[in-house]
Amino acid sequence: MSKTLEAFLSASEIKSFDIGHRKNIKYNIGQYDKKVIAGKEQFSNLELAKTRAAAIKNKSIENLEKYLIEFEANFIKRGGKVIWAQDSEEAVKEALLIMQKANAKTIVKGKSMVTEEVHLNGKLEKNGIESIETDLGEYIVQLRNEAPYHIVTPAMHLSKEDVAKTFNEKKGTPLDWSPEQITHFVRQELREKYAKAEVGVIGSNFIIADIGAIAMTENEGNGVMSMSFPKVQIAIVGIEKVIPSLTDLDLLWPLLSTYGTGQNLTVYNTIYAGPKQPGEIDGPDEMYVILLDNGRSTLLAEPEQRQALSCIRCGACLNACPVYKTIGGHSYGTTYSGPIGSVITPHLQGMQEFKHLSYASTLCGKCTEVCPVKIDIHKLLLFNRRDSVKKGFTTKTENWVWFFWKGAMLKRAKMDKGGAKLKNFMLKQFFKKQWGERRDLPQIAAKSFNQIWKERKEGK
Question: Model's pTM, two decimal places?
Answer without folding.
Answer: 0.90
